[in-house]
Specification:
single chain; 246 residues; alpha/beta; Spore Coat Polysaccharide Biosynthesis Protein SpsA, Chain A; 8 helices; 39% helix
Length: 246
Amino acid sequence: MPDRPMIDVSVVIPMHNEADNVAPLVGEVLEVCAELPRFEVIVVDDASTDGTFENAAALAAEHATVRVLRHVQNAGQSAAVHSGVMAARGRVICTLDGDGQNPPPELEKLYSPLLADESGSLGLVAGQRVARQDSLSKRLASRFANRLRAWMLKDGTRDTGCGLKGFRREAFLALPYFDHMHRYLPALFKRDGWEILLVDVSHRERQAGKSKYNNLQRGLVGVHDLIGVAWLIRRRKKSQAVEQDQ
């Protein structure tokens, strides 16, 4: 879309069967982002069956800054984020999970450093959850997975599963796309030479709906993904072409 009118920030929210979370979550995001002169909120419905799309479409009809995309078939969180970024008009993208556990007031911690970066070297601001409001089993499984990932990838972050992330749109689209890539953004951005900023963010209990993942499901998929990302990092070419003066 060559004539895309660019704006400051696009907030991308992937959702699957989160009908009761749509209105309160998007409402909070709109309130937080009201301080920005130019922004948009993009809800990406990943083939929900519970009215998520209808609720999001109703909000879009009320608010010009809200847009809704819909996957015909369920494709997963990374695919939903990728679809949202592709459609976004913001030079800076912020993401948060659609379950409401990522507090929208934390978004300012993500977009402010990127908008203020005059060097052009900051590519990603990644949230790191503190005082997680999850079950003990989920916290223990996440802690083990994060330690294993950090040991293998040396990405310098303790919590890549946090949905609160901010990044440059063009930098994200230059990354190799694969399913579940949203969990490896710090390593992938570092692979491409971008600076990473880690910020502590709060976390809250789910107010409606239920989790779409279990620990075993994440663990089995994560092993393959981790090996693949490690391979991508090792295979990255480090040389750069420099244009010569005529």
